[in-house]
Give the backbone structure.
Amino acid sequence: MNLILYTLFTAIAVGFILGVLLGLFKKIFAVQVNPKVQEVRDALSGANCGGCGYAGCDAFAEAVVKGEAPANGCVAGGAACAAKVSEIMGVSAGGAEKKIAFIACHGTKDCAASKGDYEGVMTCAAAQLTMNGTKKCAFGCIGFGDCAENCPFGAITMGSDGIPVVDTEKCVGCGKCVKSCPKHLFKLINADTKGAIARCSNHSDNKPQIKKDCSVGCFKCGICAKKCPLGCIDISSGIPQIDYNQCVSCGECVSACPDKVLVLI
């Protein structure tokens, strides 16, 4: 009985001493936190999406207070968040342009020739690593949905045709899809952009092979550039590039494109 009581009292005494020591260590080694960091953190979206370029909302909040990140850098929070953070920091919010994701490929499973049956890990990253994608077109969307899986806002779904569909109302332009696509097919564009954009990433100049691999691939015919009344389309890179400072969204290039590669944003 005495042994049990002795053990119990010893355990209580050790626990008390350790508690006191932990309290002292906490005070001695405490790191002073700028209260503004927490204020900024509370004003953020809390998505931890990484669209700001930092590991998460905590890291971004610290960077804002240190002056290393702009007050309008939270893409998920948008203009409202930028206004709150700017008020806390006492700076101007500046222009917080909303960005959305766009996939430069419309080679559906019915249009783009397949290399064959794929039986590996069902991710785009794995298919790219093992066999450079599942389609004969080396630039084509693999279609296993890594982009949708990595979208923290549920803004991307896989269409029945094997091509991702972006819900522009949900998309905040965080860029997760851009980073997760092994074919680098996603790009971020300003949500208020007016004009045409190409749904193809095949820069090859081998026209016969392009048509053989994908019936809707851009085969560099140049009709879009010829039909543009303002001459604002450049095809020197192999893919139509539109000068949005000149484009008036007339749609002439879209109508002229034989494979409907160009669409109006």
In short: The first helix runs from residue 2 to 28.
